[in-house]
């Protein structure tokens, strides 16, 4: 009897050791993940568990002879975001993205005292699993739409509060060097391999955004970013010789309406051209005027554009006020040298003023009154997230002030101006948009009856 028990125990030990060291052979070329799993399950008693949405775009090319299950999975999943865990007792294999499933508890798990909960918090697999549950992936495109290994992801990055497009926002693929920046309309286009990816979206003044996507084919993905205000205690600027060159365009200065509002203003009016005069290499032709000279050039050697339309008289009231309504301006670019060919060439400089598209989410309005002028702007959506309009007007009430002066010379005089602008922006589809801009301005000046200017 004892001899029989000995041989039975010896047989079980040899059988278990043989099962643990059992090897398999697999040879596949550009096969689907399901076919790869079926090939392993036919040769062994292992059962595999996985999410088909995470693996349907994965192609397997592997050729191995007499290798263990773990060795085969290491080679097959090497260039993917998938991880595996093996339960040796039941021969179960779990495959998932980001982090593997824990099949055993950490050593000494039940011996932890209540005061040692900090060590549990440092055990990263549990913390990572909680974060993954809150991050729901977005599926882009149709499954099995084509056989290409890459797909194009495109869309717009906008401000979640106003719907304005974000210029220069960066979209990066985590774990790779693939990335792109949005253009002047907030549009991006990115060609990446199919499958699961983690997008990292960053933009100056906005909260960082991380979004997981599963790409099956070409598709569109529009994302909104929230504004972020970061209090800074100090700024440390460091540079090396290789980092000095940031771009090929020289002599370009760019600023937006937020920068202009931070500068001192005359008579309560934010002035675009007065802000330009603060830049290096730009000088004024005289006190109380808006003409400017760039690096010794004359005022008529500057090209001033308002939404790509040339402006020949950029001032009101003999140069005391700019002809541009600051409430409608989005950004301003000044080319002091190396003017691009698209502007037709100018001896001195090019000043390009671009207006805002208008709020595509809700109706808003802004206005202001100064000692000389009053202004009002209204913007909002006609079709939400599709068609927006911006209306702005500015005028002076100096005539009313002249009539209050008890002097016949001034009462018979006249000094007034106004300007009006309208902008409409319509998103036709994912790749096309239509913008319409209108601008009207008028000046009139008369000193009694012998001098007239208009």
Topology readout:
Layout: H1 2-20, E1 24-32, H2 33-43, E2 47-50, H3 52-55, E3 59-67, H4 69-76, E4 82-87, E5 92-97, H5 117-121, H6 124-134, E6 138-140, E7 150-159, E8 170-173, E9 179-181, E10 187-193, E11 195-202, E12 209-215, E13 219-220, E14 223-225, E15 252-256, H7 257-261, H8 272-276, E16 282-284, E17 292-294, E18 302-306, E19 309-310, E20 315-316, E21 321-322, E22 329-335, E23 349-355, E24 364-369, E25 373-383, E26 387-396, H9 398-404, H10 408-411, E27 414-427, E28 433-447, E29 451-453
Parallel strand pairs: 2-5, 6-12, 7-13, 7-14, 18-23
Antiparallel strand pairs: 1-3, 4-5, 7-10, 8-9, 8-11, 11-12, 15-22, 16-17, 18-19, 20-21, 22-23, 24-25, 25-26, 26-27, 27-28, 28-29
**Main structural class:** alpha+beta
Percent of residues in β-strands: 35-45%
**Poorly predicted ranges (pLDDT <50, ≥5 residues)?**
16-20, 112-134
Could you say what the CATH architecture of the largest domain is?
Answer: Beta Complex
CATH superfamily of the largest domain: TonB-dependent receptor, plug domain
Main CATH class of the largest domain: Mainly Beta
Helix content: 10-25%
Largest sheet: number of strands, sense, barrel closure = 6 strands, antiparallel
Overall geometric form = elongated
Mean pLDDT: 78
Keywords:
454 residues; Immunoglobulin-like; six-stranded antiparallel β-sheet; 10 helices; 29 strands
